[in-house]
C-alpha cells in the first residue's frame, strides 16, 4: 500500500524464474527490475569496488543515488570480477542454473570472456539470453558504442522533438534505454512461454536501442514510402491530427485533445465557438487539419483568459480529454496516483524511507510487488556463493584475490 514500506506479499507470476543480470546503468537493469517486480529472483553481478555506475548518478542520499533505490529493488548484489578467471567460472556456474541472462555490454564482450551463447547454452540448454546493445549483435554498426540518446537519434525520435527550425531536444529522460528494456522484457516473457511449451530450449533475444525506438515511430516510414513525406518537428502539436496541442492559460499550459469528431463539437461548444462546431468543413479530421492554425488560435484565445483549473473544469464538464502538464510535485501530490499505488514509500538499506514509482502493469491476480530494497554493493555475495556450495575458506580466498567483494 502507498503508506507502507513494501507492497504486501501476493502470488508472483514469475516465481521460480532465476535471472542473472550482468548489465549496468539503464537498459539491462531496467529489464531486470521489471522481471524482479513480478517475482523473478534477480542476481545482479557488479564489479568489485565500483559497482554499477548508476549508484552514483544524479542526486545522492547518504552516498548513493536515490535512482538506485528504484532501479535495483528486488535484486541481490553479487560483487564479482568478470574479468578474472575465478569470476568467470562462478558466473558460468550461476548461469548453468538460471533461466535468463540479461546483459547490455558491447557485442563481443561476453565472447571475449568465454561466455558466448553457444558456450553457455551447452551448459544450460534452457537458457534465455537477453542482449541489449546500441546497434544489435549483427550488422555493420554492431561494434560501435551506443547509448540511449544515440538510439533515440538513429531511431527517428530526436528529429521530431522540439520546435520547428530549432535544435532537436531530448525528452528529458533516457527513453531509448527504457524502450529497449521493455522490448527486452517482452522478448523474455515470450521466450519463457515458448521454452516451457515447446520442449524446453532457450534462445537469444537481440534488442538494439535504435530499433526499440524505431518500433514506436508509428507511420514515419509508411508515409515516406508512400508519399515521400519526411515528418518534421512540430513542437507540442500532433501533426496530421487536429486539434491536439498545448494551449496557454492565464497561469500555465494545458494539453487538449479535441481531435475526435464528436469531441471536437463539444470542445467548440465549451469555448463558445458554435460556428466552428457546426461548420460542415470541420466535421472530420481532414477538414480540421487543413485549418489547424485557425482552430489552435480559437482555442487559445479562450484558454489564455482563464486559469488552468477553470479551463480543466470546463473541459471535464464537456467530456473533452485535457490535462495539466505535471511536474514532480504535481505527481507526488495527486490523489489519483496515490489511490492506484503509483507512489510507494520504500525503505532503504541506508535507514531512511523514500517515495518511489509504483509498479506497472497492474495484474489483478499476480500483481507486482516490492519485496526487498536495493542492495549495497556485494550485500549478497557470501550468501549466494554459499548457496552454490562454495566453502567459506574458498570464499575468503576469492576475496583475497579480488575476484569477489
TrEMBL record:
Keywords: Hydrolase, Transferase. It is an enzyme of class 2 (transferase). GO terms for molecular function: hydrolase activity; transferase activity. Its EC number is 2.8.3.22. It holds the Pfam family CoA_transf_3. It comes from the Bacteria. InterPro entries: CoA-transferase_III_domain (IPR050483), CoA-Trfase_fam_III (IPR003673), CoA-Trfase_III_dom3_sf (IPR044855), CoA-Trfase_III_dom_1_sf (IPR023606). This is Succinyl-CoA--L-malate CoA-transferase beta subunit. It comes from Cupriavidus pinatubonensis.
